[in-house]
Structure formats: C-alpha cells, structure tokens
C-alpha cells in the first residue's frame, strides 16, 4: 500500500526511504540506495569529522573561528551567524551546535574551512558511507548539489551512532545530545507525538524550496534519525528531491513524509 502511494510521485521526483530496527531487520525500504541531494543532512558528517579530529587531538574543539564574508550563505538560508558582523570570533563547539540544532549554513561553512572538505569526505568513506559526499560549501548559487547521500547511508549513520560505533561512547553521546536538540521537529517526528509509545527523536532534517530561486531549482525535503520508543529504538531516513518543473509542492511532500513516518512506527510496534 505504501509503495503504491510512493509510485504516484516517482515520475516527478526522487524518493529514498530506509527504516530498520536495532537488529538491522528492515521495517520498510524504497530506493534506499538512490543518490539524492543531501541538503542539510550532510551536516551530521561535518559534526562527525569535528569529533574525529578532537579524538585524534588535531584540534581542541573550542578554538575561535572568525566570521568571514566569504562564508556568507544564501540570504534565505537558516541560521543566526549571518546576522553577526564580519570579524567576530565564535567557538568551534558553538558552531557545531548551531549547525545541527538550527541548521546554520554559515556555521557549516566555517567548520568546513576549519576541518577541511577532503578530511570530511575521507572520514565519510572510511566509515563505509559509500554514496555520501560533500561537494562544496553552502553558498550562493544553490543550483547544484551541495552534497549527495542515500537513505541507506543516512539511516546507517544513526544506527552506528546509537550503537556507539564512532570512536567511543562519550563522543556518540555528545552527538546524540546535539541531535536531540534539533529545533525542526515538524518532519518525521511530527506525526509520532500522538502515539503513546513514542518518546523522542534524535534527528537532522534538511529542506530547500527550489521555487524561491530564480530560475527555479529542484526542491529537497529530507529527514532522518533515531526514533526512541518504549519498545526500543529504530533508525529512519526519508529523502525526497522534487523536479523544478514538477507541480508537487514541498508542503505536499512534507504531508506524505508524515504518512510514511506514522506507518513505519506502526509497523515497528507490530514486530
């Protein structure tokens, strides 16, 4: 039934979905290896590289980074750093929290410069995320992918994080806590609040409304995370890239994301 609903969208957009439980048994999947614009979801891997370099003692983690004009993101982009004066110094650890919790683009750009895009991509590859890559910073114009990802890679990131597969337990807890603080809970988490078995979700979403650009570009609405329930945890990723000429609105896909998320929770609770 759910796959039939997805098929209705596929002529006008790309959709990838992956959800599995703590034993890595599939709850639902659809085009889980399809490469899709990662948008802001890639920021979790920037955070991963930050933690890696702290563990390797390459950085302390609270270094001051300078706000520079060259890292200015799109005028409509998320975040608060864009409102600061150039030359102001911000601690790296504060930038990580802003990058994830409110998806601050300039914070991400500053961290990409600080950590190195090649280092970020090497860590992504070394941990086995074969179809995920950061291509450039979050800058104008946003007419091509900033990054690419698959639903499988994204769900697997959250599985590995929950199982403390990155570095050590303390590092994984630090990252989970930041993801729990993400302010945008109106995507996959939204339809779960009414279910008494749902407890919380450590997540990172990403959205680009391509219709706000001139000329229009593809729209993206992505989300993924660790869904925490009374029964246990499961890991989910929903990625959608809508063709710029499609009549499908971002709001339509968001509503469909809610339907998918609600169905996956119900399927998980039946297992």
Characterize the structure shown.
By secondary structure, the chain is α+β, with helices and mostly antiparallel strands. It has helices spanning 2-7, 43-55, 92-101, 105-115, 117-126, 151-162, 169-180, 250-270; strands spanning 13-21, 26-30, 36-37, 64-66, 89-91, 133-134, 147-149, 198-208, 219-229, 233-242. It has a five-stranded antiparallel beta sheet, with helices on both faces. β9 (219-229) and β10 form a beta hairpin. α2 (43-55) crosses α5 and α3 (92-101) crosses α4 (105-115). The longest helix has 21 residues, at 250-270. The relative contact order is 0.19.
Report helical residue fraction.
25-40%
Low-confidence segments, given as residue ranges, are none
Could you state the order of secondary-structure elements as H and E? HEEEHEEHHHEEHHEEEH
Task: State the strand order across the main sheet.
Answer: 2-1-10-9-8
What's the number of extended β-strand segments?
10
What count of helical segments does DSSP give?
8
Globally, the shape reads globular
CATH fold annotation: Beta-lactamase
In the CATH hierarchy, the architecture is: 3-Layer(aba) Sandwich
CATH superfamily grouping: DD-peptidase/beta-lactamase superfamily
Helix/sheet category: alpha+beta
Q: Return Rg in Å.
A: 18 Å
The tally of structural domains comes to 1
Strand content: 15-25%
What is the CATH C-level name?
A: Alpha Beta
